[in-house]
Amino acid sequence: MAYHHGDLAAALLAAGLELTRSGGPDALTIREVTRRVGVTPNAAYRHFPDRKALLDAVSSAIQADMAARMATDRVPAGPRESLRAVGLGYIAFALAEPGWFAVAFFGAGDTSPAAIADSPAYLALAETLDMMVHIGDLAPSAREAATWSCWSTVHGFAELALRGPLRHVGGAKVWQFAEQAVDTVIAGLPAPGVTEATVTSGTTA
């Protein structure tokens, strides 16, 4: 991937995406990225002051690609069907791109809520839950908790499938389990009429 002229920042980003796709966040170094592009490390620092800045840019590009793939699986349907597509799309991306998935949200080391507030994948989840509240399919008091219950379900499942005991299970069986996990968490989202105390305790009337 020798660099001759043009947009050096884009070339560095492309090299970073190539490295992390196969090796995850640990594979990304300024030295290796610049070696692949064919420039000196000093040239890279004009665009990315340090490794974290480059990793942040790579993470943003991965999240955009992830959201685009998730969108292709979403069809006009009710919010719960859309939420199911978002969740399964998240898991599908993780299984197809384990290196990128390891970078997408926390590869740069920032685990604060603000770090994911503008993530396209996170926004797909948030917008779907907001629509459920708007049409009366989700209790407003449960909106915040629904974000974390849905996200932890799909993210945790993906981690178990990639690095836990589910990695030893066949692909078709893993996908069956993924569908069951997503369907279960969606079925548990409370509709209006469920009291605040009930939502907090996790029980249903």
TrEMBL record:
Domain HTH tetR-type intervals: 6-66
InterPro entries xref list: Homeodomain-like_sf, HTH-type_TetR-like_transc_reg, HTH_TetR, MT1864/Rv1816-like_C, Tet_transcr_reg_TetR-rel_C_sf
Residue ranges: DNA binding: 29-48
Native species: Nocardia coubleae
Keyword hit for Disulfide bond: no
Protein name, per record: TetR/AcrR family transcriptional regulator
Listed Pfam families: TetR_C_33, TetR_N
Transferase found in the keyword field: no
Key words, A-Z: DNA-binding, Transcription, Transcription regulation
